[in-house]
């Protein structure tokens, strides 16, 4: 069955350092979504990528979708304490009906 | 995006009892989902609830344990029946965006503790 793997599981950074989380699927994806969940909160939709090789930016966040549509990454430049939380990727394989969530990467930012 | 509310926000229940969680959306939506999330873990889909049809359950989840109602396009309930401590978790409802249906918006969640 479809699997979505996400690494790393945890990342501790000093404020101002960059951070990247990676998402890999065992199958080709129709699209991929990224969500952020603050501690004690609920997942909040950040962005959706649809096209092969697509790159989107939201301020200090850069999202990429791989050429083969099997992997994706989220890069945060110059992290801030407000970036703390767990980042989830989620994708649906081509022809499938269900969205699968990755395990998430928990980001800790030390001021 | 849709605004979603859930009731209750948290509850502590005795084993063997049942709890019904309500999910209210501020606009009409077609697809609603119920998830379970253990602390520090990812989201596990329980079932998909579409108005006018029976809920579709994922492997490992059955209707007798998690009955779902979807009486209209803005409301759904999930009941956790005959609870045991293993049911302690956060339960989240979500809705699919009307246009980009793979995008989901989540409610604030219900934190359930079963003693």
Describe the structure.
Chain A is mostly beta strands and 111 residues long. Chain A has strands spanning 4-7, 10-14, 19-25, 29-37, 44-49, 55-58, 61-65, 71-76, 85-93, 100-101, 105-110. In chain A, the strands form 2 sheets. In chain A, strands 2, 4, 5, 9, 10 and 11 form a 6-stranded mixed β-sheet that branches. A 5-stranded antiparallel β-sheet of chain A has the order 1-3-8-7-6, with no helix packed on it. The model of chain A has no long low-confidence stretch (mean pLDDT 95). Chain B starts with a strand and ends with a strand. Chain B has strands at 4-7, 10-13, 19-25, 31-37, 44-50, 56-57, 68-72, 75-80, 89-96, 104-106, 110-114. Chain B is 0% helix and 50% strand. Chain B is mainly β and 115 residues long. The mean pLDDT of chain B is 95. Chains A and B meet through strand 4, strand 5 and strand 9 of A and strand 10 of B.
Characteristics:
heterodimer, A: 111 residues, mainly beta, six-stranded mixed sheet, 57% strand, B: 115 residues, seven-stranded mixed sheet, four-stranded antiparallel sheet, 11 strands, 0% helix, globular
Structural class of chain A: mainly beta
Outline of chain B = globular
Order of helices and strands of chain A: EEEEEEEEEEE
Oligomer: heterodimer
Give the biggest sheet of chain A: 6 strands, mixed
User: Could you tell me the strand content of chain B as a percent range?
Assistant: over 45%
Largest sheet of chain B: 7 strands, mixed
Span of the ends, CA to CA of chain A: 41 Å
What's the Cα radius of gyration of chain A? 13 Å
Main structural class of chain B: mainly beta
Residue share in helix of chain A:
under 10%
Q: How many distinct beta strands of chain A?
A: 11
Strand content of chain A: over 45%
Mass-distribution shape of chain A = globular
Task: Give me the Rg of chain B, rounded.
Answer: 13 Å
